[in-house]
Structure formats: structure tokens, C-alpha cells
From TrEMBL:
Keywords: Methyltransferase, Transferase. It comes from Chryseosolibacter indicus. The keyword Transferase applies. GO terms for biological process: methylation. This is FkbM family methyltransferase.
Length: 232
């Protein structure tokens, strides 16, 4: 399925015009294809665990084409880059969790692996990853962000990549009240070669909230809300 989608994208006029993916596995181009088919030219977004303004970003593509959204990055060193290079976005130096609190954030030398999850940080150390340090970071529930910055309406696109903390965040969303049209979430456990075990419980949970899995790049799953996709 994913090969067919990518082949269709490669044939599109946008890609032939030189537009380049910023995502790890082309997720942004797949998401753009979905929104284009549904007539959404500049989708809004919230990117949780944004990490870098452009490198391995699922939202940089949309920012460059005029979309605006919210980037959430708990690492204070990394959020500075968003303030500099994504100035038209809302950039927040907080974490997202299942309660409002101040929690320990494990910062790895490979900053893409930094996490609030104690279990995940221990697994990463066992896998040979080097811990740079621990810092205290404010964590808030996602509904507070939606209330404060989005007028109680979820942005079109939700991206979540928080190293073992994804399900904790997803479970706090009240999908019956407001929900994203498209969700891009890390779908596999960590593996140095990208062959980690698939997080079927997470994907099944999102599907139970009225979504279906449009594409799976192995590392990430892209799910589309059924009423958005089929509402012709």
C-alpha cells in the first residue's frame, strides 16, 4: 500500500516541481497528498515533540507553503531554533502529558531520542545510547493548549513523536469533542535499523476513535478521520 501511495506522489506535479520532503520517511508528502485530495491547501497543525524546525520535521513542509501551527518541544536548547526559524508559528517550551506537572526529562546526546518516559530511557541506555543529562520540564495536558491557542478547536494535523510517551498523550484527547483530521504518530518501538515492534495497541486505539490507517511507513503511522475522508 505504501509503495503505491509514494509512486502516486512521485507522479504529482508538486514533486516534479522540486518540492522536497523534510520528514524521515516522506510522511509530509503523504499527508499533503491526503489534504490536497480533500481540498485543504494550508492545513493547521500541532507538532508534539517537534525537535527541529526543518530536520526530520513533519510540519516544515506545510510551514513553507504558508500553513501555521503550534510546535511543542520540551528541550530548551532546541526550542530556540523554532523561535529563530519558525517565527510565524506558536513555539512552546513545554511537554505534553496526562496531567499538569513538572517532570524529569531525559536528554540524550541524540536529541531525537529524549523522553519523559523512565522505561524508555532505560531501554535506550541498554541499546547503547548515551544520556546527556536530566532536566525538570513543565508538562501540561493537550486540552489546555487547544483551549488557549486554538479556540477549543483541534488543528487539522496532529503529529506526535515523543519516544514512548505517545500513547499517554493520545489517551488524553477527547475525540468526541474536537479532534484532528489527520494523525501522524510514531508506530514502532525504537530500533537502530528501523525494525522495531509495531505499536498495535496505539494504532488500534486511534482507529477505535473513528480513524483508519491510510499509510504506514513502518516508523510512523498516518491515520485519517473517516468523516473527513469520506465526506465528499
Amino acid at each position: 500500500m505504501i509503495r503505491n501511495i509514494i509512486n502516486r506522489i512521485k507522479k504529482s506535479s508538486e514533486l516534479n516541481s522540486g518540492i522536497v520532503s523534510h520528514s524521515q520517511c516522506g510522511e509530509d508528502l503523504i499527508i499533503n497528498y491526503i489534504f490536497t485530495l480533500r481540498g485543504v491547501v494550508r492545513p493547521s497543525y500541532i507538532d508534539i515533540g517537534a525537535n527541529h524546525p526543518y530536520g526530520l520535521s513533519n510540519t516544515a513542509f506545510f510551514y513553507k507553503k504558508g500553513s501555521r501551527g503550534i510546535n511543542i518541544e520540551p528541550n530548551p536548547d532546541l526550542i530556540k531554533l523554532f523561535h529563530k526559524y519558525r517565527r510565524k508559528d506558536i513555539n512552546l517550551n513545554v511537554g505534553i502529558g496526562n496531567r499538569d506537572a513538572v517532570l524529569e526529562f531525559y536528554v540524550f546526546e541524540d536529541n531525537t531520542l529524549s523522553t519523559f518516559s523512565e522505561e524508555e530511557h532505560l531501554n535506550l541506555i541498554k541499546a547503547g545510547k548515551r544520556l546527556k543529562g536530566k532536566i525538570q520540564v513543565e508538562v501540561v495536558m493537550i486540552n489546555r493548549i487547544i483551549e488557549k491557542y486554538c479556540n477549543n478547536r483541534f488543528p487539522d494535523l496532529l503529529c506526535v513523536d515523543v519516544e514512548g510517551w505517545d500513547f499517554e498523550i493520545i489517551k488524553t484527547i477527547d475525540f468526541t469533542y474536537t479532534s484532528p483530521k489527520v494523525v501522524c504518530v510514531e508506530a514502532a518501538e525504537y530500533s537502530p535499523i528501523g525494525a522495531g515492534e509495531r505499536r498495535t495497541d496505539l494504532i488500534n486505539y486511534i482507529e477505535s476513535k473513528g480513524y483508519y490507517e491510510y499509510a504506514n511507513t513502518n516508523l510512523n503511522s498516518i491515520l485519517v478521520r473517516k468523516d473527513f475522508w469520506y465526506n465528499v
